[in-house]
Amino acid sequence: MEHDFVGLRSREKIVFWIKKKLFDTLYDWVDQLDDEVYQQQVETGSYYGKWLVDDCWFELNEWRKANGKRTYAYFGASAATGLVARELVFTVDGVALQGEHVIADEPFRVMIALNQVCLIESTELSNLESPAMRDDQYRYVIDGKMLNKLLQWPYWIENDAFSGRYVYRFSGTTLGLVTKIIDHEQNEMIDVTDYSTW
Domain range spanning residue 108? Predict the structure, then answer.
């Protein structure tokens, strides 16, 4: 049976595979909100006083439009979109894929039902059969320096990796992906991003 979500934990890494179709619903929501910002910027030169645009931005978007390419709102030098973060939240009903956008009053949330979730835990990665990477999946990996940092965190309990205790938060920037883990029980957070790879 194909699963919409696969979580894998071993001594060497934590990996999450999520079906692209779930992200498509998230990105449709993001595109709609980004378009609201874009429209306001076209009409007034900013989004209600934030993210001011200049003539270069207008020229670039006019060129993109004339060449059949998508136009983009401006959210500052470090962000290509208003999507602040994607989060994976484990619940008793399954896994929630959440999205946070800078102009949204509430986060986007889609539930992945328990029968569509496969969680694999093993000490040896070589004993695991991980899903083959395909075009219809997104993948998040915590390994190497990131995993070492997580393992040294006093609030990390390996056996709770796939429990409701932790939220996995992934934030895209123009430089790379920021990965944070939030411990809801202790109200603590760790940034495990390996910035040396940026």
Answer: 5-22+79-197
Q: Are strands 13-19 and 5-9 parallel, antiparallel or unpaired?
A: antiparallel
Query: Which long-range contacts (C-beta less than 8 Å, at least 24 apart) are formed by 132-137?
Result: 135/20, 136/19, 136/20, 136/21, 137/17, 137/18, 137/19, 137/20
Which amino acid, residue 46?
S
Does 157 fall in a domain?
Answer: yes
> pLDDT tens digits, residue range 109-158?
999 999 899 888 876 554 444 555 556 788 899 999 999 999 999 999 99
176 lies in a domain? Answer: yes
How do residues 55-98 score in pLDDT, each as one tens digit?
999 999 999 999 999 999 999 887 789 999 999 999 989 999 99
Residue 122 in contact with residue 140, Cβ under 8 Å? no
**pTM confidence score:** 0.85
Question: Which residue's structure tokens are 């040294």?
Answer: 152
Displacement of CA 108 from its chain's centroid (Å) = 12
Q: How many domains does the chain have?
A: 1
Contact 100, 106 (CB under 8 A): no
Rg (CA), the chain: 19
